Amino acid sequence: MTQFVFLPEMGCSGDMVLSALADLGAEAEIRDSLKLSLGADVSFKETSKNGVRAKMLQLSSDEKCSPLKIMELIRSAADILEFDEPQMRFAWDTFETIIEAEKSVHGIGEVHLHEVGRMDTVVDIVGATVGLTSLGAFDADIISSPIAVGKQPAPATIRILKSRKFDFYQRDIAHELCTPTGASIIVNLAHRVEKPKHTGRYREGCGGGSMDFHLPNVLRVRII
């Protein structure tokens, strides 16, 4: 069976996931599907993060959206793209995980809009679903190594990881490395958390983060 291995050694965000999947070969599918279903213009640029080649997501706009609007956009995109049951379950569970974490942190009925109130949340969730489908991930074994967080993690991110008993550790970097969206994507995708043991051949995609650090700020995704 094909295996997908996520290596969030510098954390994870939704745009890093999309960029890694694009780097693995799903770029055209992600770009065209987001344009068709959401009218979103996205592209991926080649970059280098401390000597590591990667792709980075470019989004032309990031308008604010209410959680209700995001729900409607996800449903609409799923209809247009004809998501099947596994695709719809992943997209919906990812969104609900973020919402429940934000509610828990900020109070019921008072959902904080920093993470769930932007168009890029919809782009990340729908784009990840499309990219994963294009690469055959929903029919594969998916694992993740423990997730790195920085010294300033969002409370919702920690809530998501702890509620799923997902292993994480802190890096000595004074920034948010793992976002709630990135955490939610991985906890709803990975079948288990373990350190990779495979040393043979594999394909690897690298998604670059927006910040530059003394270490390569990339999410690596391998297909074995």
Automatic annotation (TrEMBL):
The lineage of its organism: Archaea, Candidatus Micrarchaeota, Candidatus Fermentimicrarchaeales, Candidatus Fermentimicrarchaeaceae, Candidatus Fermentimicrarchaeum. Pfam families: Ni_insertion (PF01969). InterPro entries: Ni_insertion (IPR002822). This is LarC family nickel insertion protein. Keywords: Nickel. It comes from Fermentimicrarchaeum limneticum.
